[in-house]
Amino acid sequence: xxxxxxxxxxxxxxxxxxxxxxxxxxxxxxxxxxxxxxxxxxxxxxxxxxxxxxxxxxxxxxxxxxxxxxxxxxxxxxxxxxxxxxxxxxxxxxxxxxxxxxxxxxxxxxxxxxxxxxxxxxxxxxxxxxxxxxxxxxxxxxxxxxxxxxxxxxxxxxxxxxxxxxxxxxxxxxxxxxxxxxxxxxxxxxxxxxxxxxxxxxxxxxxxxxxxxxxxxxx
Length: 219
Description:
Shape: globular
Number of domains: 2
CATH class of the largest domain: Mainly Alpha
Number of strands: 0
Helix content: over 70%
Order of helices and strands: HHHHHHHHHHHHHH
Distance between the termini: 68 Å
Number of helices: 14
Structural class: mainly alpha
């Protein structure tokens, strides 16, 4: 056995991806040799390069069942794993539900990205009726409510998102901004702190925490 063959395949796939940035080849090779459950196991307990490769692969291939594994990877000792996990987990949030529901979510995201918030609100409400446990549908409706100035409704949808998906640091930050708009600084501060507990890599949120701590000191 050569030294090359002793290197785990997931490590070789990852290193090849870093060299050529060929995501299609990476996805093809990993999917031929690894089940999603194996990737989840490697993401949690593999060696450093294996964790990186597995987390990257889950971002391409994983579904919502990888959410908790990727959520824990946000606290990995390796910075590259943490960065990869933050990107990957955002992708798997959109891979819950049925194929039709995922298609509806994609439309909903495009509406929000296109500032069509009234239409987004209507579609989000319909999707939530169909799939009340689809956390990302609640989050997207929260975005629409927020951009329409409906801050209490947005905060309520953020809360529902977090109850369904406690790793959704984006919705926790969103709730903090809702509280700021409603003049509830201490509640906002608590949410920002909770967000960095979930995802320690959010440096901008740490800055908001420091600012709020100074602003609220002595109140």
